[in-house]
């Protein structure tokens, strides 16, 4: 943990304002839920809440199953990072911050088929030629995405589109339970 040098007082309603600079750096949007933790030393820790992260193991198993059937790289992402990867590039993609292409498709709430070179992560070290990205939408909010992509440049068609949309809908349903 590192100190920021910023000190805030708790108001009479028990609220603390998180400075704009920290919200921007940590990509915390207005209305976004934060989870509160207390560690062994009694420190209060605020962490961005990711409902998809609760399904981490389940999302990984789903990605593994799709990869076995299709042979393509399959990823599941929440709003901030890729939380499950099956296939090649696992080390390059797992737990990496999502890139602007992925974020834009999630915000659109529409499945996107990309046929130009793009990166799924913010660091852009690994790029793909063809991908299909289906947002996971729960209660009208895009909370993540299912990505089927290929490192070899194989084209993505209706099958991959339907499978990614089915996976996204299934994971969204799991969030309702």
Could you characterize what this model shows?
The chain has five helices and seven strands. 30% of the residues lie in helices and 24% in strands. With 177 residues, the chain is of the alpha+beta class. The longest helix is centred in the last third of the chain and has 19 residues, at 158-176. It has a five-stranded antiparallel sheet with strand order 4-3-7-6-5, with helices on both faces. 30% of the residues are buried.
Which helices and strands appear, and what pairs or packs with what?
Elements: H1 20-25, E1 34-38, E2 44-48, H2 56-70, E3 73-78, E4 82-86, H3 90-93, H4 100-108, E5 112-114, E6 130-138, E7 141-150, H5 158-176
Antiparallel strand pairs: 1-2, 3-4, 3-7, 5-6, 6-7
Please report the number of helical segments: 5
Strand order in the sheet with the most strands? 4-3-7-6-5
Distance between the termini: 34 Å
| Beta content | 15-25%
Brief descriptors of the model:
single chain, 177 residues, alpha+beta, 5-stranded antiparallel β-sheet, two-stranded antiparallel ribbon, 5 helices, 7 strands, 24% strand
Compact overview of the structure:
This protein is α+β, with helices and mostly antiparallel strands.
């Amino acid at each position: 943990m590192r100190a920021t040098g910023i000190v805030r007082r708790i108001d009479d309603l028990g609220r603390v304002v998180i400075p704009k600079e920290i919200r921007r750096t940590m990509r915390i949007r207005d209305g976004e839920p934060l989870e509160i933790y207390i560690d062994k030393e009694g420190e209060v820790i605020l962490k961005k809440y990711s409902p998809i992260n609760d399904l981490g193991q389940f999302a990984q198993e789903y990605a593994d199953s799709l990869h076995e059937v299709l042979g393509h790289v399959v990823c599941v992402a929440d709003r901030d990072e890729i939380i499950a990867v099956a296939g090649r590039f696992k080390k390059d993609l797992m737990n990496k911050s999502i890139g602007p292409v992925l974020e834009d498709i999630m915000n659109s709430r529409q499945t996107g088929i990309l046929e130009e070179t793009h990166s799924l992560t913010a660091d852009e070290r690994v790029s793909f030629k063809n991908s299909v990205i289906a947002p996971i939408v729960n209660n009208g909010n895009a909370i993540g995405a299912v990505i089927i992509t290929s490192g070899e440049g194989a084209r993505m068609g209706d099958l991959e589109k339907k499978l990614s949309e089915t996976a996204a809908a299934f994971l969204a349903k799991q969030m309702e339970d």
